[in-house]
Amino acid sequence: MNKLNKELLERALVEGVDESYKGDIILLSLTKIPNGFHVASTKGNPNTAFWQYVCTKEEYLAAKAEKEKPVVEVDWSKAPEGATHYGVESSYYIKGFYIITSEEDFFYESDVCEWVRCSCTPSDLTPRPPAQPVFTQSMADAGELPQVGMECGYIDIQKEITVLIKYLSSWVIVFEQISEGYGKNVEISKPVDNDLKKLLKPIDTRTDKQKAIDDLMKESVLFCNRDTMKICFQIAYDKWVGK
Description:
Elements: H1 6-15, E1 19-22, E2 25-28, H2 40-43, E3 55-56, H3 57-68, E4 85-87, E5 96-100, E6 105-109, E7 114-118, E8 126-127, H4 137-141, E9 151-156, E10 159-168, E11 172-177, E12 187-191, H5 194-199, E13 200-201, H6 208-219, H7 226-241
Antiparallel strand pairs: 1-2, 2-3, 4-5, 4-8, 5-6, 6-7, 9-10, 9-13, 10-11, 11-12
Helix pairs in contact: 6-7
């Protein structure tokens, strides 16, 4: 059985194609690639044409539609807790955040701050991007260093900036400033020593809701079971703030 050739399909989508259907197989003609795909009706004698399988008609049309889909800018920092997708206003969807699972789908009603059950097609919505790995408090407490690809804080001249680790060995670390301000996108190298661990700071991964509740827990007098008190604060936060 023929298999989808992802590399050639991507080149076809970028460089343009002539379409010719033969059964359920689509053959693409890439004029910029020597000995690439040829369609006999437009590219020469079918007896001498070089045929190469790329994908089915359905796979090509689906890939083309996905590539032509407009890019949607989403501020995920404003997403309610648990949101997995975002939808733009259309004849089928309401603009806003969604939760898509294998069993149930939900839409976030911002007016009442509640999730309501709905039915969605995941491919029609913008999925939440994978979270950027960060240097956590537990890693710092364990004496670990942030790994390549992680974000972390760094104390630079008494001011904390956010950096992205680009390289790490047993003797040197290289990171790039990604926070706004002077020095953004500048790479810095530092020796790996005991002073470095004092300068690298974990990223607080708590949501605004979690931070607010933790602050209330610290300031509150213990009037009941702490688990019960935390649940009360969570309910209050949802009603007051709306997230």
